[in-house]
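Q: Got a minute? One more chain.
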Amino acid sequence: MVDITPAVITAFRSSQKAFLDLTKWPDDVVEQALCEAGAETGGKRWGAYQDDCKNFKQRGMFYFAAHWLAVTYLTQDASTPGAISPTARLNVAAKSVGDESVTYRVGGIQDTEEDWLSLTNYGVQFLRLRRRAGMGALAV
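A: Always. Here it is, folded:
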C-alpha cells in the first residue's frame, strides 16, 4: 500500500489540474480519494508507486482518485461536507415526445462497476489502464 503523504497529494494536484483549488478540494478529501485509489490499484500487476508521471501505479491511482472526486461531489466542490451525492450515477438516456418524457438506465453495455467508471474521462482512462494491468502472465 501507498502512504498518502503531503507529497503524494501535491503530485496528484500537479497531475490533475482540476483539483488544484485547496478551498474546493481540501487535502483531507483528496487524501480519502487517494486512499480509495490505492486500494483499487493494490494488486501486484500495478507495480510499486513512484513519484514519476510515467509510473503505472501512480497514473492508475490519480485517474481513479480524480474520478472518485468528480462523481462523489457532483457540484465539483468538496468544501461543504454534506455535498456528497447519495445516489449512484449510472448511464441513463431520456426521450421526450410532446409533453411526455421517459428516462431510463442504459443497460447491457457494461456491468455496473464499469458503467460507474465510464461517467468521467478520468474513469475511462482508469479502465484503460486496468485492462492493461490485467493483460499477460504474472511472474512470481
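A: The helical segments are 6-15, 27-40, 56-72, 112-117, 121-133.
Q: Perfect, thanks.
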